[in-house]
Each structure stands twice: as structure tokens, then as C-alpha cells.
Design brief:
The chain is an alpha/beta fold. It is built from 27 helices and 24 strands. It is globular and about 90 Å long. The N terminus is likely disordered. It catalyses: L-glutamate + ATP = L-glutamyl 5-phosphate + ADP; L-glutamate 5-semialdehyde + phosphate + NADP(+) = L-glutamyl 5-phosphate + NADPH + H(+).
């Protein structure tokens, strides 16, 4: 189900909400109350109450909490000899009675701190058999809702007529999950949220790495396919009971979400329409087909389409890129309108200036993107190039050829133009592609994806490029190491680190862009001011913008440092100093040298010489792009040889570190990795190699049937090979 569909379901006319918290959420592993987790849930409910929602809470945990307290009391009152004897199982009803008072005391204390009044509502299965009770219950709850009181329901296990209510699953309701479903129907709730200790309903046990989260439950599809794991050791229902209760409520007309009570703000996310947990709804089969398009389906479809793309002639692949360039220009007004809506929404939401700057598609951007795609199309076809050729034996020829990697997963933030660059590179290199852009660029990404995929011929298919619309799909995609061949995250340090820690798939990218410009004592002043100003001001939010200015100590005394500082400050750059520069320049001290401002700000530090600059870069840089400004070629060579970064420049702005400016046509990202590709990653970085052997019936026969020559043969250019009939 699409993220927008869920938004329509939950944000339209939702007023009364039933929230059920399971025992595993209420208590920790030791049976004690999970104070922090439960407190966070109470804060969410209090906020909803304040916003005018009618909140009803159904809470488990009394039996487990009472058992823990009684066991402790039993331990305190027992002698050593008593403890050596077999311990009797504690009575469940007694546990319920003791635990209920403790549980309610916590809720009263917590909600009182949040200026919310709560009321305890203990019910039994027998109560609901009485029509008058049900009528009175509805009237009482309605009265409390008017006074903004949150009723806290729990099954009154202590006086239940069932012999073992924590085991007996008969009756109108049989646990707090089914009680929550019953109350939702009885009290005509608009939404039921069941909070569990897992993200939602999975295709198998959540601990199984092959299990996948089911975002939308479709009874016709899932009821026979799901394998449940062990039930909670703390509660009595487990996921089986939750699904049964959710289906009961959903087919009675109440939308239900099963999601984690461990994750912060999940209740708020559900009400915002975000795809969190598993949705149960009576109309779910209308929103999603019985056969779901899973993350795996999307990746497999991209691989199949990539093979069709590779089977085309070089000229046909080139024409696809030219068609995309033309389509972008033809749809420029529509693209700009959608981008303007994204920018306005980001500004209204209060996003940082640097993020909004990356989001904007400035005038001329579409033309620039189209030009880069055409440049890419005119480059030599990278697929199937012969890189090396060897005669293994007489008449047995081996070739090493370039080949697409397969399927790429690119996760990027903010910049919608990145989608165009990445898609064009994937097509040129013959790869399938899955794209996940930032939510702030949702409209821009959607229209760009549509324009591009509509231009791809049906013989290849638009599924060559899949657009992932929800962040919640990423964990499933990162498990597909048998289908996806490379992940490239483009974004914050946090994003890159999270992805690297969450997948077995190779990850290519950079976490930070801490770029340095070192101005040596032998610099040309005018050149230094131009390079420094451009490196910082041309596009401050870019990952190749200067974040630290290093200056030789001698420039402090001859006035050059002051000229550089003035050039930056005159253009609105906020300066922070290292320990050596802060006091001398009378500027605030930087909290850290390893900081990416992504705005009109930078750090300044004074160093001893070129070796001090190199040491500083190695200690505080991110191995992205670093530059030296000097007229001394010997010093420049020391810097170029010894700085261990992906790109190192002499007398040139760091802003040149870009795939288009390098003549790569475009870039899928900039890599600071040391394996496979480094620096701006163009077509070459998206290729691997294959071995092609052509023989005349040769066999090994324990190496007796062949006379090895292992002779290198000349590699003909593609045009020469065609002319010679190869």
C-alpha cells in the first residue's frame, strides 16, 4: 500500500483512538516496569489528549509485574532452607491483584506529571454479556472523553470466573489484545494501535533474517502464509493473539496498526500516515493486490530489465539517454512546479537553510542536466570493452571485458538532481537501479522518475529504475545481498554509518566532506583569495566545499592571512578558529575540527608548514578533497604525494571534485573508500569485469592436452575491432 494511501486512511476524521500496550512493552526482561519506555508512551498519549484526540488506553502487564513483586517478597521472607525446596507456581489471580495496583499507581503518577487525569477501568469477560453494562460503559467513557480523562482498561484477572484467565482462551474476549479489539468496536473508535516488542507482523519469526515485515495485511494472501515464532515469555498472547484481535477489529470497520512500542514516536508516526508497522483494514485487498510487490520483487525486476538493456546495441542504449535528455527539457515547467512545492514545504517545516539550498533546482538546472546526459551518451560505450587479451594456447584466446555490476541501491538526501545523474549513469553502465530519495524532495523525485522511466522503451521496461517511496522499505532492501550488488548512500554521516552497519552488501560512499585548503607561504595572494573564496562560496552546501582553511604561520605577519579573512567575512562567511587562530584573529573557537558546516561558515587554523598541514588533514579530514595554494612546485609535490585523500589539488578550487567537471558525464557519488572506486564515481565505478574465452575444442587433460603460450595480445579499440571483423 502506498504511503499516501495510509495517510488518507489515518489522517481523515480520526478522533477516538484505542492504544493497547503489551506486557513486553510495559515491563523489562526482569519483570519490572520499563519506566523510560512506558514514560515515552505516556508522553505521546498526553500530547494526543492535548491536541483534542480522545485516547483510550488498554494496558497489559499486571500479572507479570505482580509475579515479580510476589517473587521478591517470597525471597525476602524465605529462609535458606526454604529456598532449597521446589518453589510453587504463584497464583495468577494473586499476581494480577498485586500487579494491577502497582501498574495503575505508575500511570496515575506519570500522567499527573503531564497534567492529565486517568481513570482505572477493570472489566471481565462476564461483564460484556450484560447489555446494560455495555450501555453504561459507553456512556461513562463518553463522559470521561468530554473531560479529557484517559480511561485505562485492563482485564480484571483477579476476579475473573475463568479458572486460569492467563491460559484460558474462551469467551467474548480472552486477553487484553482481544479486549482492545472489543472496546474499539464497542466504543466506536476510529483507530486501534497495538504496541508490541517487534516492528509489526513478519512473514516468519522476526529473529529469522529471511523474514520480512508485512506492511499491509491482506487476509486472502497472508493468513495461510505466516509462520509465527514463540510467543512472548512475559505476556500470554504473543503475535498470534494480536493478529486475531486485529483481524476481528479490522473486519468490524476499525483500522488497526500493529507496531513497536520500543521505537520513539511510533504513535505519532502512525497518525501522520507514515508507513509504520503492519496495517489491518477491511479494504486492504482493494489498496494492494493479493500478490504484493515486495522489495525483492522490485530488485529482481530491475535485474531482469538491466539484462534486457545490456542486450541492446550500443546505439540503442545511447538513444535512450538522448530521449531522456529531451524528455527532461520538454517537461521542465512541470518539474519546476513540483520542485517549488517541495521547497515551499521544506521552508514551512523549518528545515535548515543548507538542506533547502540542496533541494532547490535553480533556473538552468534542467538544461545543465540534459547537457550532461548528452555528454554521457556520446562517450565510448563502457559495456563489453576489452581491457586485456591473452593467448592461452594456440587458438585459445582469453579476454578480460568490462561488465555492469548488476543492481544498484542508491540512498540520497535532499538533492533531486542527483536522481537524474544517478539514473543516467546506471543506464549508460547497463545496471538496474533502485532509488530512495529524501522525503523533503518527494514531489521532485516522483516527477523526475516518471519522466525518465516513461522515456525508456518497453523492450527494456520502466522497472529498470525503481523508486522506493518509504524509509521503512530500506531495511528489507538491505537484506537482499543475493539480488542487490552495491549500495551507495549519499547524505549525512549518520545515514552512511547506519547503512554500513545494517547490510552485508558492499557499500560505496563517504560519510563526511571535511575539505581543506592549505595556503602556503609562497602563494600568489590574488590566486589564494580566488581559490579560497570559490571553495567556500560557490556552493557552501556541497560536499566538496571548503570547511577548513589552513594557513602557513608566516602569512600571519605579512598581512596575507588578514586579506584572506577579510575576503571571506566580506562575503558573509562566519569564521571559527582552531586553538592557534582563535585568539589571534579574535574569532570564536571551533568546537571540533571534524565538522561539516555545509553553509557559509568554516574553520581557520594556523600551521607550521606543509608538513603541519598534511598532519592536520590526516588527523581531522575525511579523505575527500584537499587543496594546496603555492607557487613552490617542490612543496606542492610533497602535498600531492603525501595527502591521502580521494582528490588532491594544486592551485585549484576543491569544487572541481565533481563527476561532470572531471569529464565523467555525471557522478553517482563521491567515494572515500579505498576499494573498487575512489573520488567522483562515474560510469567506470559502476562496472566490474568478466572473462570471455574463445577456443577450438581444447581440453585440459591434466594439463597434458594443451601447450600454454600465455602471450599478451594487442587490444583493439572498439572501432578497430569492428573494422577488422571482430
Amino acid at each position: 500500500m502506498a504511503e499516501t494511501d495510509r495517510s488518507r486512511v489515518f489522517t481523515k476524521n480520526v478522533k477516538r483512538i484505542v492504544v493497547k500496550v503489551g506486557t513486553a512493552v510495559v515491563t523489562g526482561k526482569d519483570g519490572r516496569l520499563a519506566l523510560g519506555r512506558l514514560g515515552a508512551i505516556c508522553e505521546q498519549l498526553a500530547e494526543l489528549n492535548s491536541d483534542g484526540f480522545e485516547v483510550i488506553l488498554v494496558s497489559s502487564g499486571a500479572v507479570g509485574l505482580g509475579r515479580q513483586r510476589l517473587r521478591y517478597r517470597q525471597l525476602v521472607n524465605s529462609s535458606f532452607a526454604d529456598l532449597q525446596k521446589p518453589q510453587n507456581e504463584l497464583d495468577g489471580k494473586a499476581c494480577a491483584a498485586v500487579g494491577q495496583s502497582s501498574l495503575m499507581a505508575y500511570y496515575e503518577t506519570m500522567f499527573d506529571q503531564l497534567d492529565v487525569t486517568v481513570a482505572q477501568m477493570l472489566v471481565t469477560d462476564k461483564d460484556f454479556r450484560d447489555k446494560d453494562f455495555r450501555k453504561q460503559l459507553s456512556e461513562t467513557v463518553k463522559a470521561m472523553m468530554k473531560m479529557r480523562v484517559i480511561p485505562v482498561f485492563n482485564e480484571n484477572d483477579a476476579i475473573s470466573t475463568r479458572k486460569a484467565p492467563y491460559k484460558d482462551s474462551t469467551g467474548i474476549f480472552w486477553d487484553n489484545d482481544s479486549l482492545a479489539a472489543l472496546l474499539s468496536l464497542e466504543l466506536k473508535a476510529d483507530l486501534l494501535i497495538l504496541l508490541s516488542d517487534v516492528e509489526g507482523l513478519y512473514t516468519g519469526p522476526p529473529s529469522d533474517p529471511n523474514s520480512m515485515l508485512i506492511h499491509t495485511y491482506i487476509k486472502e494472501k497472508h493468513q495461510e502464509e505466516i509462520t509465527f515464532g514463540e510467543k512472548s515469555k512475559l505476556g500470554r498472547g504473543g503475535m498470534t493473539a494480536k493478529v486475531k484481535a486485529a483481524v476481528s477489529a479490522a473486519y468490524g470497520g476499525i483500522p488497526v496498526i500493529i507496531t513497536s512500542g520500543f521505537a520513539a514516536e511510533n504513535i505519532a508516526k502512525v497518525l501522520s500516515g507514515l508507513r509504520v508497522g503492519t496495517l489491518f483494514h477491511e479494504d486492504a485487498h482493494l489498496w494492494a493486490p493479493v500478490v504484493d510487490t515486495t522489495s525483492r520483487d522490485m530488485a529482481v525486476a530491475a535485474r531482469e530489465s538491466s539484462r534486457k538493456l545490456q542486450a541492446l546495441s550500443s546505439e540503442d542504449r545511447k538513444n535512450i539517454l538522448l530521449d531522456i535528455a529531451n524528455a527532461l527539457e520538454a517537461n521542465e515547467k512541470i518539474i519546476k512546479a513540483e520542485n517549488d512545492l517541495d521547497v515551499a514545504a521544506a521552508q514551512q517545516a523549518g528545515y535548515e537553510e543548507s538542506l533547502v539550498a540542496r533541494l532547490v533546482m535553480k533556473p538552468g538546472k534542467i538544461s545543465s542536466l540534459a547537457a550532461s546526459i548528452r555528454q554521457l551518451a556520446e562517450m565510448e560505450d563502457p559495456i563489453g570493452r576489452v581491457l586485456a587479451k591473452t593467448e592461452i594456447a594456440d587458438g585459445l584466446i582469453l579476454e578480460k571485458t568490462s561488465s555492469p555490476l548488476g543492481v544498484l541501491l542508491i540512498v540520497f538526501e535532499s538533492r533531486p538532481d542527483a536522481l537524474v545523474q544517478i539514473a543516467s549513469l546506471a543506464i549508460r553502465s547497463g545496471n538496474g537501479l533502485l532509488l530512495k530519495g529524501g522525503k523533503e524532495a518527494r514531489r521532485s523525485n516522483a516527477i523526475l522518475h516518471k519522466v525518465i522511466t516513461d522515456a525508456i522503451p518497453k523492450t527494456v521496461g520502466g522497472k529498470l529504475i525503481g523508486l522506493v517511496t518509504s524509509r521503512e522499505e530500506i531495511p528489507d532492501l538491505l537484506k537482499l545481498d543475493d539480488v542487490i550488488d552495491l549500495v551507495i548512500p549519499r547524505g549525512s554521516n549518520k545515514l552512511v554509518s547506519q547503512i554500513k552497519n545494517s547490510t552485508k552488501i558492499p557499500v560505496l560512499g563517504h560519510a563526511d566532506g571535511i575539505c581543506h585548503v592549505y595556503v602556503d607561504k609562497s602563494c600568489n595572494l590574488d590566486m589564494a583569495k580566488r581559490v579560497v573564496s570559490d571553495a567556500k562560496l560557490d556552493y557552501p552546501a556541497a560536499c566538496n566545499a571548503m570547511e577548513t582553511l589552513l594557513v602557513h604561520k608566516d602569512l600571519e605577519t605579512n598581512g596575507v592571512l588578514n586579506e584572506l579573512i577579510y575576503a571571506l567575512q566580506a562575503n558573509g562567511v562566519t569564521l571559527y578558529g582552531g586553538p592557534g587562530a582563535s585568539g589571534k584573529l579574535n574569532i570564536p573557537e571551533a568546537q571540533s575540527f571534524h565538522h561539516e558546516y555545509s553553509s557559509k561558515a568554516c574553520t581557520v587554523e594556523i600551521v607550521e608548514d606543509v608538513h603541519g598541514a598534511i598532519d592536520h588533514i590526516h588527523n581531522h579530514g575525511s579523505a575527500h578533497t584537499d587543496c594546496i595554494v603555492t607557487e613552490d612546485n617542490e612543496v606542492a609535490e610533497i602535498f600531492l604525494r603525501q595527502v591521502d585523500s580521494a582528490a588532491v589539488f594544486h592551485n585549484a578550487s576543491t569544487r572541481f571534485c565533481d563527476g561532470f567537471r572531471f569529464g565523467l558525464g555525471a557522478e553517482v557519488g563521491i567515494s572515500t573508500s579505498r576499494i573498487h572506486a575512489r573520488g567522483p564515481v562515474g560510469v567506470e565505478g559502476l562496472l566490474t569485469t568478466r572473462w570471455i574465452m574463445r577456443g577450438k575444442g581444447q581440453v585440459v587433460e591434466a594439463d597434458k592436452g594443451v601447450a600454454y603460450t600465455h602471450k599478451d595480445l594487442p587490444v583493439l579499440k572498439r572501432t578497430e575491432a569492428v573494422e577488422n571483423g571482430f
